Amino acid sequence: MLSDVPRVRLDSMVWRVHTGHESQEFGTWTSWGVVGRIVSDTIVSLLGVGAEIIGARDSVLFRDTVSSFVDMHPDPIFSQVYHGIGLERVRPGRSVPVRYSVVVYGSAPATEWGCPVLARVIRLPIAVRDTAGRGGVAPVPHDETPRSPFYQWDPWTFDLDSALTYPPTAIALIDGAHADTAQSELIVLRDKTLFRERIMGAVVADSSRATVEAPSPIAVARQDSRPQNVNRAARDVHPRPGQTTLFVRTGGFSYTWQYPTGAPPPTAARLDSTLQVIRRRARERASRTNPAP
What we know:
By secondary structure, the protein is mainly beta.
């Protein structure tokens, strides 16, 4: 498959025609569609990247562009409901689906499209959406942007910034290196907490549905009157050894608040206590699963 973007390519592209209800409420409809995936051997941003689909009929070419990529996940409660997950990066082991379809009324497909002749990865000529922040700050691609609170985050593999994008207010508590731990991360979402830490090359993780009383963003803002633009990435927050960073994203801004590990201010005391409880639980579970030799 052709690609104008280094290190990415289209794979497993197929096309099909189907006649039926096509998710319409009444009548018979026919869809002409192309389905495939973008793959890569490394992590590549898909901001400003699209997939061009070209069809031909009677020597006339028809083309259109897929400018956003969405994966569909089934709802864990309602089997007929699916939730879209926007993908902004392709990485090894996780391809990005490409879907394009034209739906018309009747039992015949859109006549102008004929047969597909080419699909390729392209650079978009213009920005498909305004992702730049104030002052022209370059956008930071997220791994996944869930559009549903039912999304099943995996504490072992979650992307720090992706997990902070969905809720109106999301909070991360990031501990710097201490003892044998490289870094600890605790994220509070709407109804779930995610915890992960790296110990001497190994990863210990945990998730919980327990409600955590998160500090008020207003209280954090009072401590730090210089809010950073929302395009600042949590992945770029690297606390020094013995230091903890409280990262709050809300209302289009992100706030950071730093304090010595083990000496949280009153506003963050409950959250810090939760981190310690989850850390002990995760380490105990890891020790039972992988006992020391």
